[in-house]
Amino acid sequence: MHHFKFYNPVKILFGAGQIANISAHIPQGAKVMLTYGGGSIKKNGIYQQVVKALAPFEFIEFSGIEANPKFETLMKAVEIVRKENVDFLLAVGGGSVIDGTKFIAAATYFEGEDAYTICTERAKISKAVPLASVLTLPATGSEMNCGGVISRLSSQEKFAFSSPLLYPRFSVLDPAVTLTLPKSQRGNGVVDAFVHVTEQYLTYPVQGDIQDRFSEAILHVLLDNGKQYVENPEDMEAASNIMWACSMALNGLIAAGVPEDWATHMIGHEITALAGLDHGQTLAIVWPGLQRVMGESKQAKQRQYAQRLWNTDDPEKAIAATENFFRELGVGTRFSDYPSVTDVQGLIDAITARFKERGVLLGEKSDLDYAKVQEILQSRK
What we know:
Blueprint: E1 11-14, E2 31-35, H1 40-43, H2 46-53, E3 58-62, H3 71-84, E4 88-93, H4 95-107, H5 117-120, E5 131-135, E6 147-152, E7 157-162, E8 170-173, H6 183-201, H7 209-231, H8 236-249, H9 263-275, H10 279-293, H11 299-310, H12 315-328, H13 344-358, H14 370-378
Parallel strand pairs: 1-8, 2-3, 2-4, 4-5, 5-8
Antiparallel strand pairs: 6-7
């Protein structure tokens, strides 16, 4: 097992009715900006609960954070935070809203010429506005980590950023808020969490037994509850288990002391940036192809995955079973499942060209180059 430092200060308020308790966890006298997306929280009652809970505070609102949060939109919020002297941010939404709010928190005090270098050049974040979240869509784990992913319209780019200063002070996880989620968002969320785990697990052995067993437990929970969660919104036990599994999938615990991959995400981000597919959809497309193309490099852990998750000694059977699981969740696993992608070959060529131009090597062993990116994507037509 590799050496590691593990730190996660996020306070979790889990369960029905926890939104009502947020005022006790926001600093007294804080001026709050409430951030959210397209307004669905006003239709399902979450907004009303939050506003009631914020009664002791002066607060303003910023809405319209996109499903793939845009730099251009978020910089408008930054201007307001600066002008209004906001000193606490409360994100109410899924991972995109929370990611976007983290960027607002970091960009508010950024002194460079272009705040997007926080993402593209990992420019140092030396100060950030404190933030918290009320999670409405289990998927990304952003409610319990210090990272995010932001797109930029002008350049059709999508990059990640992180800083210990961006851990939420607290996050509310109320499974009841998932009742009104569309089936597609539920399926995407389960796929996202599943791939998060495998990006930290399907690498190579370092005898991280606790990390492996924790990872396998999370995967089992997703497999056991995923279909029920997607098909039956009223099942609060399934929703509770999925919500907590999504948080545990990317809060740093299972990554401690083990190698990480993240190539599926890096390739998926490019599909979203250029073709506009949902994040979970891109992962479901890329993951099976990547596991097959990189099978030799991942052979030992793929065999362990096959044995412990799917009761087979054949990694190919496990990959096929996983792909079938994604499809059972309602998430397509090939480009042909998405009619909106009208020029698949053109998209593949554009993504390949980007990786070739950047000269980056992906994967836990830095052995996945642009040619393998092309091979992976070609296999997913």
